[in-house]
């Protein structure tokens, strides 16, 4: 009872001090607030991206302000304002809120959720070095190998294509991050990835749980816990612990073995540097715990992004046969039918690049983004943004901005064709991978993985809707999950080998790797 009273007093003080305080400039436009509660009841629990789009229209502002129990929060609804605030003033907005809920779940040492400070700089530097646009070219053989295996599995078991995509996405990042090869569909590492993604996708939007604003609530006994999100975080923390512990334990055991056969990997390189520093008597800035957290970041970010984006790409190839045929024709023109596509073909397959970019625009993986936090007071267009403000960026609203995208609901890769070539010259959507100093360091790797999977599917398969008993295409309702990441629900697709030659090319490459 004492804890509840303390939280109540804290809320009252924070709300009172934030509402009575005088600011040198007006705050951004906002809905009417309520005494004590502020805008708590104005914040949507589901489909937040849609509600915030409406707020932006209602108040004719691309920045909308909310006071959440005394905490400041703004939502950015256009790429222009996100660029001006998060990119151009990135030094001010590179912090993260205190994601207590995700810390309870086990994400404490993951770069995505880490607050700004020396540890954040350390992790980001390590990950940036390993995943620059140049560095990821070393991983091309892994991506091509796993994509070809994945497509052959899809053709053999098309009813389980989502599992094959999950295996592909997990296998790529496990080989790159830990040097671990996924041996079968029943490999325990696949289950780890599935469980971790389930835990994260159903954990709610980051920074929206009551415990994020009042950290002491994390210690409330379960019998008094009224928060569904906190209950979920506690229930699923084992899944995130498995993700951090099991792959790292395997590579660490292999690394210290006298007869080590460990494959080169991101984790292996960090462990090797750690040992070399110890042998030379030099300080190790990254502890074993840091190496473990940084390696886990590669797994969850790369696996989830690649799986979800490839799934949405396949959905749109099925729903848009004209796009599918046009993309297939480009692959035929550049690659031919005597070999399989490779990442070296990418500069000559521009339409496939557009297709991947349109996939991330049409349905952004994280519709409302992961919030930044301001490190000091700021003013934008005479609107005051107080220090400590949570800054969300509504990627979905940006993707539907009629001032930027013509017919934004339509999946149309041609929209990116330059104007000098007769196209609309619309810009790629930046938001799906974040902004400023919090932009995803693995974005180049993830996009390359999606690209090679899509290119391999186009070269070797025909994709279509399932048919009913009368031979008519079955129209399926598609629903997307909400939360930290947005995935389409289960849908059926027909995959057929494009030709006997294409099937033989896949089988010859894969051999007995399956």
Automatic annotation (TrEMBL):
Record-linked CDD domains: CYP64-like (cd11065)
Alphabetized Gene3D superfamilies for the sequence: Cytochrome P450
Keyword vocabulary terms for this entry: Heme, Iron, Metal-binding, Monooxygenase, Oxidoreductase, Signal
GO MF annotations in UniProt: heme binding; iron ion binding; monooxygenase activity; oxidoreductase activity, acting on paired donors, with incorporation or reduction of molecular oxygen
Coiled-coil residues: none
Required cofactor names: heme
Signal peptide: 1-17
Superkingdom in the source lineage: Eukaryota
Entry-linked InterPro entries: Cyt_P450, Cyt_P450_CS, Cyt_P450_E_grp-I, Cyt_P450_sf, Cytochrome_P450_fung
Binding site for heme: 440
Family: Belongs to the cytochrome P450 family.
Protein name: Cytochrome P450
Organism of this sequence: Microdochium trichocladiopsis
């Amino acid at each position: 009872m004492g804890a509840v009273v303390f939280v109540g007093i804290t809320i009252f003080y924070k709300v009172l001090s934030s509402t009575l305080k005088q600011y040198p400039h007006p705050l951004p436009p906002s809905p009417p607030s309520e005494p004590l509660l502020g805008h708590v009841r104005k914040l949507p629990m589901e489909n937040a991206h849609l509600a915030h789009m409406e707020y932006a229209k209602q108040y004719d502002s691309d920045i909308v302000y909310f006071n959440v129990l005394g905490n400041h929060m703004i939502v950015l609804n256009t790429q222009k304002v996100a660029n001006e605030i998060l990119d151009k003033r990135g030094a001010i907005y590179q912090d993260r809120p205190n994601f207590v809920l995700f810390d309870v779940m086990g994400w404490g040492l993951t770069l995505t959720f880490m607050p700004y400070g020396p540890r954040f700089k350390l992790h980001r530097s390590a990950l940036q070095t390993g995943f620059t646009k140049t560095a990821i070219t070393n991983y091309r053989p892994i991506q091509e190998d796993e994509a070809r295996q994945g497509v052959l599995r899809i053709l053999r078991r098309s009813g389980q294509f989502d599992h094959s995509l999950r295996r592909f996405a997990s296998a790529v990042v496990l080989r790159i991050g830990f040097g671990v090869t996924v041996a079968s569909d029943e490999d325990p590492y696949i289950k780890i990835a599935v469980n971790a993604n389930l835990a994260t996708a159903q954990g709610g939007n980051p920074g929206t749980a009551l415990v994020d604003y009042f950290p002491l609530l994390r210690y409330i006994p379960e019998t008094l816990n009224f928060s569904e999100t906190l209950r979920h975080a506690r229930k699923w923390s084992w899944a995130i612990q498995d993700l951090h512990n099991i792959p790292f334990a395997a590579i660490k055991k292999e690394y210290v073995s006298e007869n080590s056969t460990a494959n080169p990997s991101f984790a292996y390189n960090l462990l090797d540097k750690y040992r070399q520093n110890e042998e030379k008597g030099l300080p190790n800035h990254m502890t074993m715990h840091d190496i473990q957290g940084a390696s886990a970041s590669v797994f969850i970010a790369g696996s989830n992004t690649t799986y979800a984006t490839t799934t949405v790409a396949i959905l749109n190839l099925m729903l848009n046969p004209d796009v599918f045929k046009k993309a297939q024709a480009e692959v035929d023109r550049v690659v031919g039918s005597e070999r399989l596509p490779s990442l070296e073909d990418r500069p000559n397959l521009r339409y496939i690049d557009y297709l991947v970019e349109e996939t991330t625009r049409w349905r952004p993986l994280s519709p409302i983004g992961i919030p930044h936090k301001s490190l000091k007071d700021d003013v934008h267009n005479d609107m005051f943004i107080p220090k400590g403000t949570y800054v969300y960026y509504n990627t979905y609203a940006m993707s539907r901005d009629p001032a930027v995208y013509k017919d934004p609901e339509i999946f149309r890769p041609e929209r990116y064709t330059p104007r000098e070539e007769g196209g609309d010259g619309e810009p790629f959507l930046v938001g799906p991978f974040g902004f400023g100093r919090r932009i995803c360091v693995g974005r180049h790797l993830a996009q390359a993985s999606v690209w090679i999977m899509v290119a391999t599917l186009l070269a070797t398969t025909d994709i279509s809707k399932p048919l009913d008993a009368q031979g008519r295409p079955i129209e399926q309702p598609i629903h997307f999950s909400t939360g930290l990441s947005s995935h389409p629900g289960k849908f059926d697709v027909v995959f057929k080998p494009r030709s006997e030659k294409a099937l033989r090319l896949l089988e010859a490459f894969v051999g007995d790797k399956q």
